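Narrative progress, year one. The postdoctoral researcher (J.K.) led the effort to move from monomer predictions toward full complexes, under supervision of the PI. The following entry was the first complex the group processed end to end, covering 776 residues in total.
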Amino acid sequence: MPIDFKKELENAARSMILVHDPDVLIKTIIRALVDKAGIEHASVLLYDPKRQTYVLSLSGGSLENKVPIGFASLDKDDPLIRFFRERNNRILFKKDILTLDSAEKALKNQVLTSRAKSLLNDALYQARLLETVVCIPSYFREDLLCLFLLGKKTNGKAFLCAELDFFSALASNMAMAIRNAQLFKDLEIELNKKHQLFMRTTIALVAAIEAKDNYTHGHTTRVTNFSLQIAKRLKNKNKKMINEKFLESLHIASLLHDVGKIGIPENILNKRSALTVGERNRIKEHPLIGATILKPIKELEESIVGIKYHHERPDGSGYPEGLKGEEIPLIASIISVADSFDAMTTDRPYRPALYRDEAVKEIAKLSNLQFSPLVTEAFMELCLEGTL
Amino acid sequence: MPIDFKKELENAARSMILVHDPDVLIKTIIRALVDKAGIEHASVLLYDPKRQTYVLSLSGGSLENKVPIGFASLDKDDPLIRFFRERNNRILFKKDILTLDSAEKALKNQVLTSRAKSLLNDALYQARLLETVVCIPSYFREDLLCLFLLGKKTNGKAFLCAELDFFSALASNMAMAIRNAQLFKDLEIELNKKHQLFMRTTIALVAAIEAKDNYTHGHTTRVTNFSLQIAKRLKNKNKKMINEKFLESLHIASLLHDVGKIGIPENILNKRSALTVGERNRIKEHPLIGATILKPIKELEESIVGIKYHHERPDGSGYPEGLKGEEIPLIASIISVADSFDAMTTDRPYRPALYRDEAVKEIAKLSNLQFSPLVTEAFMELCLEGTL
């Protein structure tokens, strides 16, 4: 008995293990069923554990745009679902598959209780509304994970027994693939949550630390914003220079660039009168203190470089090491421009804020002396466009 | 032609999608091959992207304990691997499968260049050392992901053509399952890394904040340690009370319990003489300040409760809300005992440290007044055992 679509569907199914988005996976499966097996339409009712309902995904077949109202999802207690969730109903049909024919035979069967007949009747009513002639359930362990609903064959003929067997095996494989995709997605969501938790906690702690310094309210947020914009501009100009990993390191480094100020006494940070040389030297320790605080965290290696060197200057007059020109890492050069621009445009104890245009001019003038020419160029472009 | 093991192996393979540990997966696969298909031994050479080598996993079959030295892994340039990595060698054999027979025929074939013959000879030499009669490669995209090596059939007969076809299809499915497991494992590793990054960064920032307070060096680390030990003891006594999520929340809450001190001026924190009522009230704000700092972080909800209420007392004399008895959340009650015990046993500006035994007695005496009786009981048990 030739089932010519079998190989093709099996091959399609094989590669689906690596489709880790449940939605894409289901759409691909039902599309393949319709296209390869010559079925008018196919759909899947998939269990959503969060909403505790079975959500309908539909093929692009002939049923599209005419799904009955209320069928976007079915409740656990809807007859069609309940019929397949109750184990004793399943044993009536070969390999758990329910066809319209077998259902009608079963209804005439004396073995069925009147309660079971009534449930089957209600289930068939729902199946018919979805123009379904075959229902194939897939169980994960003992739970109904999904229910495949097939329409008629496009050639008008009845399904062969071997075809139904094959669909049943396929549905079981697909259930595994769907479950796999769900687990994958869950893990991705967890990873994303953990990332958010890390970023938000860091932001909260940095904001609390920043609050000790009366003159820097919102400074960290603005510097982080400026830094990321400059980096994205540099990426657009030369993709190779900047990748996702760099952007993440820069994000963290910008958030933490002044964390070392926690090691400077409050009375120096908030002093209104002129600082002594000794006090100024204390403040200049903050990049090194910041780097020291984070040193045990290997994953922050690149960020630490940004924190440690964000007060270096190309002419060698910066601190802590007096690095020159290209010796200064890009990540630090970006923070340097962002940091200085924000410092210039906000009030400080020893001077009022510069106007925005004055600050931009000042930075342009200091390119190659205090600031990296490459970073200054990107910064100027953003300013001229009004993006920054 | 009956291949009676086929169904069993197919069923085994199906459920393997959900085995997400690559090592377990491979061991299960080769075990199933040996047991179900009646092969003397089977093994897999699996590509390890980090080490850039092919690592051998062996069945428990007859080859065990006699793998030739140097075969625990094969280099990319080892002949057996190179033969399958070079695409032009593959086309000589049906479905990429190399059998000893087909190889010997190929060596007599005039089409092969002398270079190809030499490589095949070297590959066969390695295969024979592993007592392999059939090699089945699995490619992911164009890369050799793994190479299945089969020993002789236990009944001494030659492999049937249909059997080889089946193994080839199975190997391809298995390659997908292995790839899936690897991706899953990679994601789990990333999640774990992100968790470590979050914890380490929090610890580093908390240590930096703590350093502002001259009298609390190492306090946070000790309180965290005590809290977790008490919680684990409570879990042993009554599993329902404490789950993994609670332990994680407690861990974070313990680390951050004094984070609100960042909002208290340094001169109050480090004052050597007696505090005024006003100064004492400022210090009493730290649980609320801590909760406020972290409030935007929804994931930390349970931890925030621990931070906010860790100075409440069952007799209602605590702060910030004067909660009584059972009103005080367990997470806060645990930190309260851990925090007080550490404070009692370390020097403070206003008094020297108590001896350990004195502190334990003091806490026992204050059970139900200052400390939760439940937590005190667990704490006392740990102290008596010498665990704490």
